[in-house]
């Protein structure tokens, strides 16, 4: 935000030099990006944090400087008292609103205005803040928004069909032409104002071309609203349409300041555009937006800050911040003005005292305490994650991170019913509408995106997935998933079993985990419930001495029914002797499977006779159980 020093000086006496002022503002939390001299004025480029919408105004920044310098703020003098306003000619207007989407609707009609070029002083102020002057009515609304921090919009009253203004939410897809001539399709739930025939305003973002103030405008309705921050941000992001007004509404506008902003705007309009008030002051709301109380305990303040700040200094700081402190027993009660939406709890007040006191005054200390010796409830052992990731990377896989939100189309592509997935209420777009119940869609998408650039692609992700139909049934777990366009089923199975072996879990078939390997159009893909794996993981390692005697290896080719599982065959072979150390599937063609068997005795060298006896036992058992025959 650009802030001219000359404009600030209209509201507060400043004794600091620009450089000193920049340092003090930065120390107080209002970041100064740069200070430069333009056309004889000093311009501060300020970085406004999301929690301080009051700083998105000249008076808001002036209040901060007044608190730093210990000066009084000088607010503009209001000439017209709207509460006592009794217009001679009252023009009709019916307003209908929904307080959930439009908590406050403040406005007034002014008749007989003359739309023309703004005076030089007004155009100069707007240009210094990077605003383009348009005409006196629009320039005044922008000026007061920049001055007070309350967005304002002026409608051409005679273009409001039926003299009706109704605040509602868009169905989605409606056409809208903004006041600057651009066409849009509105997202669902965007807040709009309609007259009896058409949409005339995209609330909090842009006015409508069909109700804008131009040279022919004679009567205007000036509106100072309070909008729902979530709905404004959603529509703004969907349309990729940002404005000064939307930036303020997203952060939370001063809900108690609409009347003062309207008074200032009416003063300037009557002065620069003429006309007369032609209605009552409309102020529709279902609650009062008054200052609120927050209690501060000096003892708590000193404990949180780690230093002792004198009570008189605490009271002085709170007074400078216009918080009207009152001391009673061991409690200081402050009254928070409506422009400070960020001050809700005691810790917020403590932070205010600390930053105005000056963080540079805090003594430099080293952290102290004891090292935690027991696991905290939410402890996660990342060493196990690293082991698993190292195995996958050594097998040629690359790790990726993807969004936790996916589209309805992605769910349906995996055969998942969207009604059984968790949907968020305010998705920023249809591409990020559901919490992912599986990692697979994003892995497949990543593989497809990388295909044009790489022949071989091996990707994996370790992340959370979410299950349940609603928030009451919601559950989140870690899953491990990978995809490859080159590795075959047996290679993937071997990688999965290597992971299980490292975690001290029985092999995939025994643990019933390799059923999660499947073939898709793009490659071979696997997914494991990593949270359950961690429950079975053991860090205990059993040392086995290296064998003194060499192994004997042989291959057996069997003709066997293709419906019999390889895992069942291997399991049966292993049962035939303790000296069978390992059995793997070497090859498979039609109804023939070749198994590689390793025999090894820890006590002696094996003779040919030893292995022949075991082989005969294996063949006999497989014949009886699976009707298997040796391939001759």
Task: Describe the overall structure.
31% of the residues lie in helices and 23% in strands. The model is unreliable at 508-512 (pLDDT under 50). The protein has a 5-stranded mixed sheet with strand order 4-7-10-11-12. It is an alpha+beta fold. It has 5 domains: 2-69, Phenylalanyl-tRNA Synthetase, Chain B, domain 1, CATH 3.30.56.10; 82-285, Phenylalanyl-trna Synthetase, Chain B, domain 3 (Phenylalanyl-tRNA Synthetase, Chain B, domain 3), CATH 3.50.40; 292-357, Phenylalanyl-tRNA Synthetase, Chain B, domain 1, CATH 3.30.56; 382-536, Bira Bifunctional Protein, Domain 2 (BirA Bifunctional Protein, domain 2), CATH 3.30.930.10; 552-630, Alpha-Beta Plaits, CATH 3.30.70. The protein is elongated.
Percent helix, as a range, is 25-40%
CATH topology tier name of the largest domain: Phenylalanyl-tRNA Synthetase, Chain B, domain 3
Number of beta-strand segments: 29
Walk across the major sheet and give the strand order.
4-7-10-11-12
> Main beta sheet: strand number and arrangement?
5 strands, mixed
Rg calc: 36 Å
Number of domains: 5
**Amino- and carboxy-terminal Cα gap:** 85 Å
Share in β-strands: 15-25%
Mean pLDDT score, rounded?
A: 91
Q: Which stretches are low in confidence, meaning pLDDT under 50 for 5 or more residues running?
A: 508-512
What is the number of helical segments per DSSP (H or I, 4+ residues)? 19
Structural class: alpha+beta
Q: Can you identify the CATH superfamily of the largest domain?
A: Phenylalanyl-trna Synthetase, Chain B, domain 3
The CATH architecture category of the largest domain equals: 3-Layer(bba) Sandwich
Query: What is the CATH first-level class name of the largest domain?
Result: Alpha Beta
Shape: elongated
Oligomeric state, counting identical vs distinct chains:
single chain
